[in-house]
Specification:
The protein has about 60 residues and is mainly α. It is about 90% helix and about 0% strand. The longest helix is centred in the C-terminal third of the chain and has 34 residues, at about 30-64. The relative contact order is 0.10.
Amino acid sequence: MGAVLQASGQRKSIWDEHAAIAAAIAEGDAARASELTNLHTANARKNLVERLGHVFSEQRAEAT
């Protein structure tokens, strides 16, 4: 996560997601914390797949 936060233009949205999860936990709202955690995980997965796709595309282009 540290590398993503350092190199990503998504830093603010990632921190906002973490803050919302922490707030839900602090408020004792387990259902909301779970929902936000699932959404955060889905967003992270989507972003990782996109990043890896770009890396692999660049590697294929360099190999040809």
